[in-house]
Amino acid sequence: MGAFSLLPSVPATTRSLVPSAFRWSASPLNSAATAVPRRGLPPSRRRFLLGRLQSNIADRDGMAQMPLEQSEIIFLGTGTSEGIPRVSCLTNQLKTCGVCSKATEPGNKNRRLNTSILIRYTNSIGRFNILIDAGKFFYHSALRWFPSFGMRTIDAVAITHSHADAIGGLDDLRDWTNNVQPHIPIYVARRDFEVMKKTHYYLVDTSVVLPGAAVSALQFNLIEEEPFFVHNLKITPLPVWHGHGYRSLGFRFGDICYISDVSDIPEETYELLKDCELLILDALRPDRSSPTHFGLPRALEEVRKIQPRRTLFTGMMHLMDHDKVNEQLSKLMETEGLDVQLSYDGLRVPVSL
């Protein structure tokens, strides 16, 4: 199967509502024929220690290539909606922002774009690039990391929610659908698709586009809060609250749980987080939570409750100095046995899926 072939996971019930514009899935997949068998043995602590070692090696040499058979997670962005550094900090002549100043330095880990990861998934069919969110800085993230890590196609995009830092880059996908592949499947909840009908109406209904004008060719697949499959990778939505009354999704794939935008976790979602090996979790600021995001103290409370083997925090604002906070977090391994650290843009973590 080609890297940009029509997804084999699109169910037979899918019907085209707008030709060549989007696809609508009446229900998520539940066919046992496409299920991915679980591995015989549970992942070991040793594998994650090896993964950390490999991540550190990749950190020293950004051009290092993973073995072709190795799946991995690539952090395309680990910051807030406005990104780091902030223009307002760099232009403030009365007060120097230490984190934003550091973020102007080449290669500094405090430089953060919109929160997003790419699952580089390898199975018996081939290797696939599954993107989670394409925010308003997606072009800059892709420009930095796609050439560096030898990535070209985008085989699917899963959307957590419909804020600009998650969907603002959908228009930039035209570079791929014009020059690399004929279309990109988008997996999105109905509530967020309704927002896209307004914010990206010309991508949903391409009949409004003037002849000769090229826009992103996207196939929209509606998902419920039930597992679905992308290139035989089972993805389980993790419903959370992102502010009062606003539903967002995390995603679980294999034993990896990703929750980027969260202010509270419903009790039923904890069941979906059991036996999590790697937790990637929202942690906005060092002192407290906001109405829409976990702060570091609350995020640590959740880590203690969920008990993953390893946690990487994401979505950090400019109050979170990468080296200083990580130095503090490293002490929790000694005192509590908590393996917790801040992630950073360009971090690569080898995983087994």
From TrEMBL:
Keywords, comma-separated and alphabetical: Hydrolase
Domain Metallo-beta-lactamase, first and last residues per copy: 113-316
SUPFAM superfamilies, per the entry: Metallo-hydrolase/oxidoreductase
Gene3D superfamilies, alphabetized: Ribonuclease Z/Hydroxyacylglutathione hydrolase-like
CDD domains: metallo-hydrolase-like_MBL-fold (cd16279)
GO MF: hydrolase activity
InterPro entries noted in UniProt: Metallo-B-lactamas, RibonucZ/Hydroxyglut_hydro
SMART domains cross-referenced by the UniProt entry: Lactamase_B (SM00849)
Protein name: Hydrolase C777.06c
